[in-house]
């Protein structure tokens, strides 16, 4: 009789723990006062490809700055482990890591409000990735769209390229992240993190919450030379992409040469007028206007005059960022100390989680 009561109590305790875990995994969205509950955690990463371009700034970094004021725990990682899925020059990679740190700080990331760190310096990422990789089937990875695309481009991709979504999942789960800001093209990779959280929890008991997506409201910025494609640093045309460190003259030249069409009126119709619509998107975002407000300012202008208005908005917004990046680049010691401090904070969070994972798996 006593054994039966004890078993029933254990089942009840287990049910309550699962219920509480479920509540944690469904961490509520930001409340009306623009603050998230204390158990919410945000994680995101960016590859060290040097300084960001305008698409990075509007598509991700501007949102990152906002999130650090809304969530109680926010981690932003310079994911250099991911970067070596493509060949890297070691000296250039070191420079790119510091350039990205300078860019993030200049764009408004505050090390007092967010943990900014270098991924490779927290070894727990790689170890958790191995453990999760052993719970991931090969067909699951083969169906991810980026593997299909990138492996075709290279005829045959590397093992690292094939398994990097598992490392991406480890990045997220290592900090028991509840929210991840992602672009639309990354949603399926976040679904893998959600799947692996469930798989691990089913095998070894509830530990990881299932992270939610935080989709940015900003529209994608398109190439200035081919508005059917998104703005990219790898674009071979040097007039296609605006870097956040471009000078006012460089910005003016690139926007002046941006592809539009033969209609002089400024309208917003991405399907039939993608070039002009891209300029409206950039203008609205950089001047912090709605699309309708941007069109109102463009009323009566032809595209040539409107390009000058767009240039003014971009230059005004990027000039202080460019100047701050230049200042920070000159202080390498400061950048290294910021990353070191962030790494220490990240490890303090990661170490106990990995210790628990190791125990549950049976390593210790």
Characterise this structure.
The protein has 364 residues and is mainly alpha-helical. Helices cover 56% and strands 7% of the residues. The strands form 2 sheets. It has a 3-stranded parallel beta sheet with strand order 1-2-3. Helix 9 (187-204) links the parallel strand 4 (179-182) and strand 5 (212-215). The longest helix is centred in the C-terminal third of the chain and has 30 residues, at 332-361. The model is unreliable at 1-26 (pLDDT under 50).
Describe the structure concisely.
By secondary structure, the chain is mostly helical.
List the helices and strands and how they pair.
Layout: H1 2-25, E1 41-46, H2 54-67, E2 73-78, H3 80-83, H4 90-107, E3 115-118, H5 124-133, H6 138-142, H7 145-153, H8 159-173, E4 179-182, H9 187-204, E5 212-215, H10 248-256, H11 274-286, H12 291-298, H13 303-329, H14 332-361
Parallel strand pairs: 1-2, 2-3, 4-5
Helix pairs in contact: 4-13, 5-8, 5-14, 8-9, 10-13, 11-12, 11-13
